[in-house]
Amino acid sequence: MDKSVRRYAGLYRKALEEFNYSDIDGLMKRYETRLKNMYVSPAFKAHNIYLSMNVVLIYAVIAMCLELKEKGLSDQKIMEFSDTVFRKRKKAVAILEKIIAALPGTYRIVEKWNIDDHEKRVKDKSITYDLFEVEDGKIEYRISRCMYVEMFEYYGIRSLCRIFCNTDISAYSQLERKVRFRRYSDLSDKDCCHDVIERR
């Protein structure tokens, strides 16, 4: 866990520097201490049982959110900060998505990814689907329980789970020439996550 703390603390520092914060060493120390304590908490042990989820990363993001919340930042500002922290990661994913978008079987790749992901989530019980339907050229699902949301809710910042919810929106924006993605609601502030994915 020390390696993970160092890794995410380094990313946190770079973002603090980019946003021109003062007392960066002090803010870093607070973040490192909080994250170390979170990693050894009973809550982390209870949450870190889902094989389809990177709980170490999720907790690192939650720790950042809690630190920034205490500094009085709004949810929107915290999400902008998170985007900055993980900018390189997002760029790498965007490059991969552009490659997929250039392939003739883009929708089939998306379809297989969704089916495989659904299978993994059901198996480890990290997500509860009330609906998961796959038709020719269309996937629709409704989710009533999600451990991403429950982890953020446990720490009193449910609305900031949208940091992870929005990754779907970003991903499908790279594929929009061949795939239409519509999100009607998500669990960050509604009672279900309802998405429809269609072949264009």
Characteristic terms for this protein:
200 residues, alpha+beta, globular, 60% helix, four-stranded antiparallel sheet
Account of the 3D structure:
The protein has 200 residues and is α+β, with helices and mostly antiparallel strands. It contains nine helices and four strands. A four-stranded antiparallel sheet has the order 1-2-4-3. β3 and β4 form a beta hairpin. α1 runs antiparallel to α2, α2 crosses α4 and α4 packs across α5. The longest helix has 19 residues. The radius of gyration is 18 Å and the shape is globular. The N and C termini lie far apart (44 Å). 24% of the residues are buried. The model has no long low-confidence stretch (mean pLDDT 94).
The helical percent reads 55-70%
DSSP strand tally: 4
Sheet having the most strands: 4 strands, antiparallel
What is the end-to-end distance?
Answer: 44 Å
H/E order of the elements?
A: HHHHHHHEEHHEE
- Structural class computed from helices and strand pairing: alpha+beta
Spans where pLDDT lies below 50 across 5 or more residues: none
- Any idea what the shape is? globular
Our Rg estimate from Cα atoms comes to 18 Å
What topology, given as strand order, has the largest sheet? Answer: 1-2-4-3
Strand portion, in percent? 15-25%
The number of distinct helices, counting runs of at least 4 residues, comes to 9
Mean pLDDT: 94
Write the layout of secondary structure elements.
Blueprint lengths: L1 H17 L5 H16 L2 H6 L7 H16 L4 H11 L1 H16 L3 H19 L2 E9 L2 E9 H8 L7 H12 L5 E7 L7 E7 L1
Antiparallel strand pairs: 1-2, 2-4, 3-4
Helix pairs in contact: 1-2, 1-4, 1-5, 2-4, 4-5
